[in-house]
Automatic annotation (TrEMBL):
Belongs to the thiolase-like superfamily. Beta-ketoacyl-ACP synthases family. This is 3-oxoacyl-[acyl-carrier-protein] synthase 2. Residues 5-412 form the Ketosynthase family 3 (KS3) domain. SMART domains: PKS_KS. Involved in the type II fatty acid elongation cycle. Catalyzes the elongation of a wide range of acyl-ACP by the addition of two carbons from malonyl-ACP to an acyl acceptor. Can efficiently catalyze the conversion of palmitoleoyl-ACP (cis-hexadec-9-enoyl-ACP) to cis-vaccenoyl-ACP (cis-octadec-11-enoyl-ACP), an essential step in the thermal regulation of fatty acid composition. It comes from Agathobacter ruminis. GO terms for cellular component: cytosol.
Length: 416
């Protein structure tokens, strides 16, 4: 291990989302303000309050895994492998030339194989629990996406699964950043995956009054809008390849962005409700800025957690204002969940990818569906249309059930 802090860069990206099944398609659709919310197709919603979700569309799982393997993998793991395949190919890594003991995986899922759990519970009730699938446990446990990514690519470094609800994807990126920066790994494949659009998953969130029950896709996921009434469930996966800077330069890798800072805190207050004043979310942002050596006025863009729930959006606004002070009046803040829905444990990973792309291409995706201003959400939320602007540094925020707060800062590659 090297005791000096090393530079960390992003050299590969992969995504499967409700607005695109690869990174270029997703990015263009986000800039175009395409809404990924639509009627649920994965099950019959006739007797259900919630009719809408942000599903992955027109994606063939066999592009990720062989047909014979599909019956042994939950959908969240298949999505993870699909995004990992794109990211690894995009990175250009030749694993035969790498020390695989210094290549790791840190990958999140908030809930894991919920579809498998529901299916096998139903089977057990019908046929007896000794008759459930022998693949039930390895299909359903939350670390299996991380495990399968490591198995697929033969990565023998640290392999871990972060489970911090909706903050998990950001924690995975931040923890991977520290592993590389502090010299424990040279390469870490990180991110998150989620697939909970099932009667069990949607029903659970409906029962706690967390989901929007509108039947209008254009007025369902509307972060920071005064008429917001709950989040829209999404699904998908996002994968980033993080690499030590000199290692990347030596092999001539393309660099999307540099990772500069990471902060994580806990409200330690309530299992679902955030602190109303957002003080611990603000502390996570301050920690990330201090880690990056940045002043608030140097931040150009924040990809907000922005779930379209009353408490979250109001609390996150207060947190941003507390952390950035006067600079909060000048920073661009958008919620891409207005287009993707809420991908739970995958959201932070997908939004970290988006943040990297904002700094690479100097384009900020909008918060779509914004109609009714809320005086308690008084930030520049880039309403309805993308904006071209220089983005040197971007912060991505994630806030999860259990009080988990995480912020990561990425930016343009710092030239020596």
């Amino acid at each position: 291990m090297n005791n000096e802090k090393r530079r960390v860069v992003v050299t590969g990206l992969g995504a499967i989302t409700p607005v695109g099944n690869d990174v270029p398609t997703m990015w263009q659709n986000l800039l175009d303000g395409v809404c990924g919310v639509a009627e649920i197709t994965q099950y019959d919603t006739t007797d259900c309050k919630v009719k809408l979700a942000a599903e992955v569309k027109d994606w063939d799982p066999q592009t990720a895994v062989d047909k014979s393997a599909l019956r042994k993998l939950d959908r969240f793991t298949v999505l993870a492998l699909g995004a990992a395949k794109e990211a690894m190919e995009d990175s250009g890594l030749n694993l035969e030339q790498e020390d695989k003991s210094r290549c790791g995986v840190i990958f999140s899922s908030g809930i894991g194989g919920l579809g498998t759990i529901q299916k096998e519970c139903e089977r057990g009730l019908a046929k007896g629990f000794d008759r459930i699938s022998p693949h039930f446990v390895p299909m359903s446990i939350t670390n299996m996406a991380a495990g399968h990514i490591a198995i697929t690519y033969g990565l023998h470094g640290m392999c871990s699964c972060v489970v911090t609800a909706c903050a998990g994807g950001t924690n995975a990126v931040g923890d991977a950043f520290r592993q590389v920066r502090d010299g424990y790994q040279d390469v870490v494949v990180c991110g998150g995956a989620e697939s909970c659009i099932t009667p069990f998953g949607i029903g659970g969130f409906t029962a706690m009054h967390a989901l929007c029950t509108s039947d209008d896709p254009k007025r369902a996921s509307i972060p920071f809008d005064k008429e917001r009434s709950g989040f829209v469930m999404g699904e998908g996966a996002g994968v980033l390849v993080l690499e030590e800077y000199e290692h990347a330069k030596a092999r001539g890798a393309k660099i999307y962005a540099e990772v500069y800072g990471y902060g994580a805190t806990c409200d330690a207050n309530h299992v679902t409700a955030p602190l109303e004043d957002g003080r611990e979310a603000a502390n996570a942002m301050r920690m990330a800025m201090e880690d990056a050596g940045l002043q608030p006025e140097q931040l150009d863009y924040i990809n907000a957690h922005g779930t379209s729930t009353s408490l979250n959006d109001k609390g996150e606004t207060k947190a941003i204002r507390s952390a950035l002070q006067e600079a909060a009046d000048h920073v661009m803040v958008s919620s891409t969940k207005s287009m993707t829905g809420h991908l739970l444990g995958a959201s932070g990973a997908v939004e970290a990818i988006i943040s990297c792309l904002t700094t690479k291409y100097d384009c900020v995706p909008p918060t779509i569906g914004y109609c009714v201003p809320d005086e308690e959400c008084d930030l520049d939320i880039v309403p309805n249309e993308m904006r071209r602007a220089t983005v040197n540094y971007a912060m991505s925020n994630s806030l999860g059930f259990g009080g988990h707060n995480a912020s990561v800062i990425v930016g343009k590659e710092q030239m020596a």
